[in-house]
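2024-03-11 09:14:02 DEBUG pipeline.ingest accepted 1 chain
2024-03-11 09:14:02 DEBUG pipeline.ingest length=95
2024-03-11 09:14:03 DEBUG pipeline.predict start
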Amino acid sequence: MRYLVLLLCLAACDSPSPRMIGADRAEMRVAGKTYAVYRKGPAFEAIRLDRVAHGGHDAARAAMLSAVAQATGCEPVAASVTGDSGVMRGRLDCP
């Protein structure tokens, strides 16, 4: 039971995936939602920190891509983006 409680606590964190450990982190607020954006080299991972109402996931996904661009100064490569409005991963195209 003790391990289940620990696991549930960790699941609620905005920690990056293992491959993004040590990445630069920025917290961005876009369109009323807060996102944690991690960057490691040309790779990014973004995590939504707020709730989204039913029907608002497309807008949250667009806002997340905007948060990535603002936080990194680079554009996400559309063909590389995976995930949903909760967690998104991909590569960056930097000038």
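2024-03-11 09:14:41 DEBUG pipeline.report The longest strand covers residues 33-40.
2024-03-11 09:14:41 DEBUG pipeline.predict end
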